[in-house]
Amino acid sequence: DTGVSQDPRHKITKRGQNVTFRCDPISEHNRLYWYRQTLGQGPEFLTYFQNEAQLEKSRLLSDRFSAERPKGSFSTLEIQRTEQGDSAMYLCASSPGLDYGELFFGEGSRLTVL
Amino acid sequence: GESVGLHLPTLSVQEGDNSIINCAYSNSASDYFIWYKQESGKGPQFIIDIRSNMDKRQGQRVTVLLNKTVKHLSLQIAATQPGDSAVYFCAEKGGGSYIPTFGRGTSLIVHP
Predict the structure, then answer these.
(1) What CATH number does residue B59 fall under?
(2) Residue A105 and residue B104: Cβ atoms within 8 Å?
(3) Which tens digits make up the pLDDT trace of B1-30?
């Protein structure tokens, strides 16, 4: 297993465009998380899934942000009508679903909104 | 509100020295703590964790100390190497939650 995979690694877009990021977790990990990280800050939680169920989405930054995990495997994070303030690193992580245990992070998808 | 934070934003040490990175937390319900290392352009990487029923845990060259009385966590790195240069984050998870919350991070710079 090669770990958590994220695509694309870098995305440059113009303000107002929609962008979608994909995350492939470690196989058989049933929890999948999305975090956002801006320069000099720690990762900020956005949402997470237990299998295909999205169990927490109140921390999504606005209604322009949405995430799916339709078959309980890969996940997508979409940002509609991007704004310059959306520029950040979007991190995906997965875990096997134990009560205690670390998250396994991907390398992130860096978004630049011009 | 509840928060996790770090005392020092940057720590510079010489190769071979021991490093200590500190973290304060305010959620008394936190029962699990994790230290992550993040190198430039990469995702956070697990270093070591500790549950609230312990006050010390050791790994290879790393030790985490937990003081629940003053809500303080530290990461000790022995014989620091240039490859240890990175940003270090502590994360905490409250009882019953599956969502780790991260602090701001400390940048460790190791000079050869």
Answers:
(1) 2.60.40.10
(2) no
(3) 344 554 448 999 999 999 999 999 888 899
- Locus of tokens 């020295």: B17
Q: Are A80 and A67 in contact (CB under 8 A)?
A: no
A107 in B contact zone (CB under 8 Å)? yes
Domain assignment of residue B77, yes or no = yes
Predicted local confidence at residue B4, as pLDDT: 54
On whether residue B73 sits in a domain, the answer given is yes
Nearest to B44 among A41, A43, A44 (CB): A43
Q: Pick B103's closest partner by Cβ from A31, A33, A42.
A: A42
Asked if A104 has any chain B CB less than 8 Å from its own CB, the reply is: yes
The C-alpha atoms of residue A46 and residue A23 are separated, in whole angstroms, by 14
Would you say residue B59 lies in a domain?
yes
